[in-house]
Amino acid sequence: MMYQDNPRAGLFRRLAAMVYDTLILAALWMLAMGLALAFVALLDKTGLISLAAYQDEAEFIQKHALWFQLYSLLVFGWFYLYFWVKGGQTLGMRAWRILLLRPDGGLISLKQATIRVLTAFFGLGNFWVWVRWGKGLALQDQLAGTIVVKLTKEQSKELNLHRSAH
Predict the structure, then answer these.
(1) Nearest-5° angle of CA 90, CA 78, CA 48?
(2) Angle 110-119/65-87 helices, nearest 10 degrees?
(3) Which of 1, 38, 147, 166 has the fewest CB atoms below 10 angstroms from its CB?
(4) Count: domains in the chain
(5) What H or E segment, with its residue span, contains residue 71?
(6) What is the biggest distance separating any 2 CA atoms in the chain, rounded to whole angstroms?
(7) From CA 25, how far away is CA 137, in angstroms rounded?
């Protein structure tokens, strides 16, 4: 079934999905921090770095915050790239029944997903929906050549049943 003719997702649904995704990203970030702490401990054990000047691994990460911030941005970017390219929905988008597509109804490419991640400005690009009133396009949609549509309950169930069958 093609969804590109569905109504465009409004600002409220987009922001609600972002709030939901933020909770998931917080958990993912905690996992990423745990992995970073373990990695620093491993580097210390192997002698590649020394923690002698630091109280613990967390202080090492804090003193080298720029690297961890870049690592965090990569983790967050991967989250969106993976879900958008694989199925057109993050978990928050699934909960709020919105779907990311190309205008012809197909799944977006990695290039389009990357453009969306880089141009969304941490969600502020969604307010472009108000500027482009009636078009239903956020700034990242316009720049990446994508659309975000609202699904009915039936379409959402059908889409998710189809995915779980694979």
Answers:
(1) 150
(2) 130
(3) 166
(4) 1
(5) helix 65-87
(6) 61
(7) 24
Q: What's the number of CA atoms in the CB half-sphere (13 Å) around residue 80?
A: 23
Query: Minimal CA–CA distance to 18: which of 129, 110, 108?
Result: 129
- Closest by CA position to 134, among listed 4, 1, 2, 11: 11
5 belongs to a structural domain: no
Question: Does residue 3 sit within a domain?
Answer: no
Total-model pTM: 0.83
Question: Residue 147: which H helix or E strand, with range?
Answer: strand 147-150
Q: Is residue 119 part of a domain?
A: yes
Neighbouring CB atoms inside 10 A of 77's CB total: 14
Those residues whose C-beta lies under 8 Å from the C-beta of residue 61, and which sit 6 or more positions away, are: 33, 36, 37, 40, 68
Give me the pLDDT at residue 164, please: 57
The verdict on residue 158 lying in a domain is yes
Blockwise average pLDDT, block size 10, the chain, 166 residues: 88 94 96 94 93 92 90 95 96 96 95 94 80 77 94 90 59
Number of other residues whose CB lies within 10 A of the CB of residue 57: 18
- CB of 61 closer than 8 Å to CB of 37: yes
Phi-psi region of 8 (alpha: psi -120 to 50; beta: other; left: phi over 0): beta
